[in-house]
Amino acid sequence: VLAELIEKFVSHLSESRTDCYFSTGNYKAMETDVKKESLSSVQQLGVEMTVRYGKYLNLLEEDAENGLCFVLMNCEKFLEQQQRTVVSSLCCLQERYTGYDWFASSIFLIMSGDRERTLTFLQQFSRLLVSAFLWLPRLHLSIHLPVTTVEYGIHPVYFCSAHHIEMLLKAELPLVCSAFHLSGFTPSQVTDQSWITQCFWNYMDWSEICHYIAICILLGPDYQIYMCISVFRHLQQDILKHTEA
């Protein structure tokens, strides 16, 4: 039901010019067999983890690994069409996205391992503004960003979402904000490097991960910020307890 809901919602918005924030070219999926070895070592580990998790949730069949590799490779090729070349010594700007695509993997699980359905959804989803915040590889070396922003290697999630999370945390949960300052650790280090980048994998149950993705798609990218604040509110007593100790 969730898969059908977000699929119809994104399909409807992607057909509206006013809702399409990004322009995308035509891309046809590669029909050749995609071998796991063509992925980076990080992606290979991610594929193993995703398939193991999907089987644990009874969402994937035995041959799911090939389907996920197919999705990841085609996403990479599709997004390459919208990337610019940048000369930089930064590791994160050396061609392909250095991390694992947790969002695409999440959609693959939501679609129960249907590779064509997943890829069609992601291509339509990439036209919407919310894709910039939920799907981090979407704006890697992107032509949709100013050259200076790309050269700094800082994703909009870091300088946009993180900024608003810290501002809201200061207003809504001042004690939690103070606890972070005392520790010398910033809230954005937790929200960006762990929660948002990984789509809350290893932090929330699968149903809650699905709710996070659906809420942000249906209600807008600002709900990514509200979700993070809600989690901090939920953890407030634990955070204060650890600070005292």
From TrEMBL:
Matching Pfam families: BROMI_C
InterPro entries, A to Z: BROMI_C
Domain BROMI C-terminal Rab TBC-like: start-end pairs: 1-244
Protein name (database record): BROMI protein
Recorded name of the encoding gene: Tbc1d32_0
